[in-house]
Amino acid sequence: MDQPAADILMSRRVSLVSWKTFLAVMGPGLVVMLADTEVGSIITAAQSGVQWGYRLLLLQVLLMPVLYVVQELTVRLGVFTGQGHGELIRKSFGTGWAWLSVSGLGVAAIGALVTEFSGVAGVGELFGVPRLLSLGLTVVMLLTVVLTGSYRRVERMAIALGLFEFAFFIVAWRAHPHGAEVVRGLTQAPLSNKAYLYLVAANIGAVIMPWMIFYQQSAVADKKLQPHHYRYAQWDTAFGSVVTQLVMAAILVAAAATIGEKNASASLNTVGDITKLLVPFLGANVGRVVFGLGTIGAAMVAAIVVSLASAWGFGEVTGYRHSLEHHPLEAPWFYGIYAAAVIGGAVLVDLVPDLVKLNIGVEVMNALMLPLVLGFLVALAFKALPPEHRPKGLYAWIVIAVSVLTAGLGVYGGICGAGLF
């Protein structure tokens, strides 16, 4: 074999090895991003499209790098310290700060689980399934996935559930948006309008959740990713950031091209509201079945991520065993917290009649917690990471600017949502 042919063959082998490594490493970033497009985010994207057409579509693209910058820090921390978020806060800043952080996580997780289970119940009711039955089946499935599997098995199941979100692309395509109107919307941004700015803040708040940070860092540590996996883990996070925002964009486009054109003042407080209004435009199959499948996939993967983030977070602060590689009898507190989160969320949704008001309160609370959540994340990046792996130079300033802007707009949205501004 001549030298050029040998070089080509070697290059192909290296490329194949790189792809195999990427596929082995891929998971934490993609899973957490699929969970990011949860029920609350779906409602936010739909409201954006109905109220403002395509004027918030460009924001979904601009949020891709914002989401990547924030979540990439969790990858660095997980890979180069081998520790979860709660554990690293405890070791870097003390037990008191760790408990403050994980307490915020617990409150945010309860709110998120209420949102996810309300979405599942809403889809079930559209098909005539009693709320108690749909919630019960969801709980059984979520408990079975985690209590009978290793980390890798749970990760694969979460990805499989999250792939149902691709159904939203079908919904957007069947909505037949007008290209000229989409382009026109991309060039318009009424920044002097407070209602528009509120939805800008809401979309930003829907991108960064406290449980996302806890989950991805802990998942990277639990998966035992090493420094030589770092580049592939970055690509995993980048790919997930693009996918989740494209899903948000698809939902926005579908709502703008259908409900927004005929009923821009429509109230979209629940997934059921959105689905019922889509059916006249898209038909029962796409408007109800396909949209319902996407919503269930988003809700299920988010419920897994939120519950595991809670179990990992409390385990890291208290020191009890907190790994999916342990048998339930070896880590009873870890699995107990997960089960309590899942069952508690379902019970609360079944008992609370007015979930709309509860969901609004949860969104306000999450927005107001962003300064604390992002503050800890950035502080850890500059203190807990080995010096050679800390953000440096221009990128360090980008990290700080993105975090401050995201936290500031999150607080603004929260204050507006509470009617204080």
3D architecture notes:
The protein has a single domain (28-384, 393-417), classed as Amino acid/polyamine transporter I. It has helices at residues 3-25, 28-36, 39-52, 57-81, 85-93, 95-126, 131-147, 151-162, 167-174, 179-186, 194-205, 210-222, 230-257, 259-262, 271-318, 332-351, 355-383, 393-417. It is 80% helix and 0% strand. It is globular, with a radius of gyration of 21 Å. The longest helix is centred in the C-terminal third of the chain and has 48 residues, at 271-318.
In short:
The chain is mainly alpha-helical and 421 residues long.
Reconstruct the topology from this structure.
Elements: H1 3-25, H2 28-36, H3 39-52, H4 57-81, H5 85-93, H6 95-126, H7 131-147, H8 151-162, H9 167-174, H10 179-186, H11 194-205, H12 210-222, H13 230-257, H14 259-262, H15 271-318, H16 332-351, H17 355-383, H18 393-417
Helix pairs in contact: 2-8, 2-12, 2-13, 2-15, 3-11, 3-13, 3-15, 4-12, 4-13, 4-17, 5-6, 5-15, 5-17, 6-7, 6-15, 6-16, 6-17, 7-16, 8-15, 9-13, 9-15, 11-18, 12-15, 15-16, 17-18
